[in-house]
Design goal:
With 325 residues, the protein is α/β, with parallel strands linked by helices. The protein is built from 11 helices and 16 strands. It starts with a strand and ends with a strand. Bound molecules: threonylcarbamoyladenylate and magnesium ion (MG).
Length: 325
């Protein structure tokens, strides 16, 4: 049985928050909204609960979870020291869509850190997430609330479709505002391991130059896996409108084709012009993948300029796509 707890995202009801927090304290698995995407949460110190999260997602056990905190006061329990750069990033972006990789203390189980000596820490900026984290009082380990390899969930409906009957509760707090996951940063090497909600430019303003690590050198275990993909085949395109429309027309002779675009409009079996800014595009991309996979065989998705949040968008689109044209 999965309990659905519907809360008011701008004024979370106390009793409902208490219920979610109580379940988490009892070692249960509870999905909850954050400003980036929904998370599938459990007590970060409880190895059995962590085990259940990995199992529910079908996630490889070497891919560590992010530990979510409701207060910066929880940091010393989780990490063995905070460098100058880390302190600057924490001051600038906690709470927010930033995850920091830091040296863990002995209290953080290896089940949570995927066997690593480091732990990923994030303090979400979402009223419901914050209320649950504060009420529970324990750090909550939470990967994105999707079956491993599927698009992340940006609404409770997405979580329900992946996990109904397989987790203890799902807190419905509406749509996630950002729509892409947090930026994962290793400040010790000045590297972005996963581009996300906070841009490279924003990070560089605080700690100076950083590099976005490439696939071959990436130390983030999650980045080696295929990701974010709907059941329909995804083709990423960056070409001119005329050529892409012709390509779509050819495909439509034998297949149902959907197009997700931002700069141009196309005609297809299902065409979605998704937003007028990169932020709107980021917010809707996973939801559109999930909507269109029900309707078409192939999804053509338009690439964006790799600047600002566009870097994170292209990172997700490349991973979801099995072809680029
Ligand atoms: O926005 C987000 O970050 C969402 C919400 C729920 O907070 N969470 C999320 O979790 O995206 P997940 O598990 O889907 O992605 C976590 C990423 C993975 O790529 C993982 O490999 C990396 O963070 N990671 C976690 N711990 C790490 C560590 N100790 N060292 C390097 N990478 C780590
Ligand atoms: Mg994920």
């Amino acid at each position: 049985m999965t309990e659905i707890i519907k809360v008011n995202p701008s004024m979370p009801e106390k009793a409902k928050i208490r219920r979610a927090a109580q379940l988490l304290s009892q070692g249960k698995v509870v999905a909850f909204p954050t400003e980036t995407v929904y998370g599938l949460g459990c007590n970060a110190f409880d190895e059995d609960a962590v085990e259940k999260v990995f199992k529910a997602k079908g996630r490889p056990s070497d891919n560590p979870l992010i530990v979510h905190i409701g207060s910066k006061r929880q940091l010393p329990i989780l990490v063995s020291g905070i460098s100058e750069k880390e302190k600057k990033l924490i001051d600038a972006f906690f709470p927010g869509p930033l995850t920091l990789i830091m040296n863990k203390t002995g209290i953080v189980p290896y089940a949570t850190s995927g066997g690593l000596e480091t732990v990923a820490i994030r303090m979400p900026k979402h009223k419901v997430a914050q209320a649950i984290l504060k009420e529970a009082g324990i750090p909550i380990a939470a990967p994105s609330a999707n079956i491993s390899g599927r698009p992340s969930s940006t609404t409770a409906e997405h979580v329900i479709s992946d996990f109904m009957g397989r987790v203890d509760a799902i807190v419905d707090g509406g749509k996630s505002r950002i729509g892409l996951e947090s930026t994962v940063v290793d400040a010790s090497t000045s590297e972005i391991l996963r581009p996300g909600g906070i841009t490279k430019e924003e990070i560089e303003k605080v700690i100076g130059r950083v590099e976005i690590s490439t696939a071959s050198t990436n130390k983030s275990p999650g980045m080696k896996y295929r990701h974010y993909a709907p059941s329909a085949k995804v083709i990423l395109f960056t070409g001119r409108k005329k050529a892409i429309q012709e390509y779509a027309d050819r495909l439509m002779k034998s297949k149902k084709v959907g197009v997700i675009s931002i700069y141009h409009s196309f005609s297809a079996d299902e065409a979605r012009h998704a937003g007028n800014s990169l932020h709107e595009y980021a917010r809707s991309i996973f939801a559109l993948f999930r909507e269109l996979e029900e309707k078409v065989d192939v999804i053509l998705v338009e690439g964006v300029e790799e600047k600002g949040i566009g870097i994170a968008i292209m990172n997700r689109l490349r991973k979801a796509a099995s072809e680029i044209v």
